[in-house]
């Protein structure tokens, strides 16, 4: 494998997102006679696929549904990010940006003087809408950074 080319053993069976649709990697490699690298994916959405993992009579991977698979280029595949990266992206308040805004509610201006940076320690729950979480991250990091979370869900519409 080249330096920039992923190892198939590290990506097969991993969860990915392609153009906002969820899938599982079933194959990584070439698909002759086409050039370049392809990911063979099995889609969660059964209507998204095109084939059963074969191309021109060669079976590269198998799917539960005969039309559940596709070959996609690496540029279209997102492996997501770890849990705490998503929490930080979704729940961090940019205090400088907030303090520079003037917001009026019922003709009264809100005062931002008491706005503080969000403390992850006190978050009781998180909603990670279409966030592409790929794993927990480093051992113990979630418990250390967000000890109060007792409910976490990923909204999928």
TrEMBL record:
Family annotation (InterPro entries): CAP-Gly_dom_sf (IPR036859), CAP-Gly_domain (IPR000938)
Any one Gene Ontology cellular component term annotated for this protein: cytoplasm
Record flagged with keyword RNA-binding: no
Limits of the CAP-Gly domain: 29-73
Entry keywords, A to Z: Chaperone, Cytoplasm, Leucine-rich repeat, Repeat
Localisation: Cytoplasm
Principal cellular location given in the protein's record: cytoplasm
Matches recorded under PANTHER family: DYNACTIN 1-RELATED MICROTUBULE-BINDING
Recorded family membership: Belongs to the TBCE family.
Name this protein carries in UniProt: Tubulin-specific chaperone E
Organism annotation: Champsocephalus esox (pike icefish)
């Amino acid at each position: 494998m080249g330096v920039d080319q992923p190892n198939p053993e590290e990506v097969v069976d991993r969860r990915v997102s392609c153009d906002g649709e969820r899938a599982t990697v079933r194959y990584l490699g070439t698909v002759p006679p086409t050039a370049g690298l392809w990911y063979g994916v099995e889609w969660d959405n059964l209507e998204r696929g095109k084939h059963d993992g074969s191309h021109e009579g060669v079976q590269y991977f198998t799917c539960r549904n005969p039309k559940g698979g596709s070959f996609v280029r690496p540029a279209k595949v997102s492996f997501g990010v770890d849990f705490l990266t998503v929490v930080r992206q979704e729940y961090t308040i940019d205090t400088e940006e907030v303090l520079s805004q003037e917001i009026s509610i019922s003709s009264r201006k809100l005062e931002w003087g008491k706005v503080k940076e969000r403390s992850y320690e006190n978050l009781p729950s998180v909603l990670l809408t279409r966030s592409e979480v790929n794993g927990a991250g480093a051992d113990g990091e979630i418990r250390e950074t967000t000890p109060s979370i007792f409910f976490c869900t990923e909204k999928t519409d």
